[in-house]
TrEMBL record:
Keywords: Repeat, Signal
Originating species: Stichopus japonicus (Sea cucumber)
Protein name: HYR domain-containing protein
Signal sequence segment: 1-17
PANTHER family: FI04643P-RELATED (PTHR24273), HYALIN (PTHR24273:SF32)
Chain ranges of the HYR domain: 17-101, 102-188
Domain of life the protein comes from: Eukaryota
InterPro entries linked to this entry: HYR_dom
Pfam families per UniProt: HYR
Coiled-coil ranges per UniProt: none
Amino acid sequence: MTCCGFTFNLFLFTASTDNEPPVFINCAPPPTVTVDADPNNNGAVVVLPSIFATDNSQATPTITYSIQSGEFFTIGSSTVAVNAEDAAGNMAIPCVITVVVRDVTPPTIVDCPENAVIVSAPLGQTSATVVWTEPTATDNSGSTVTVSQTGGNVGDNFPVNVPTTITYTFTDAAQNPSVCSFIVFVTASTDNEPPVFINCAPPPTVTVDADPK
């Protein structure tokens, strides 16, 4: 540039703007973490994988998790969003970690009769009414446990000398089954008692006169 007999060198400086977000380097495909729930709980503590990102500025981006590693996750599927932000405030599209906690523990049964329920039929009868304490079950997931039963119900009549298998099957929401099974057996009553006289104490004495002839 020349003005008034003088020559000037004009330099123009512009500020560089960083509009480029960080790039994740280990989130393709998005990771899935699968763990089994604790046997006595409705979830598990989950360790999440470390996610890394790079940035065009060569500075290390700030990585944040929506849920921290080592937290308790309940049974089922959850997602964790991992964010990467550079010094210029550019945010990467979140890396989404899927956490799956599986329920692999069957329901816990209480009051299952041991081995067999044995009763005697009334004397002269060929069957008897049988009752027992019905078993129940709870599950670590806290969900409702469904029950199915085969073989007979409490209060049914069961035939003499015919063993009957009673089975209760308890199933939780994850389709884990627990089975309570026992035998119902009705025995025939045996009469081993002799008759009892009701008018022979003391033994009676009969006295008569001899025939004169």
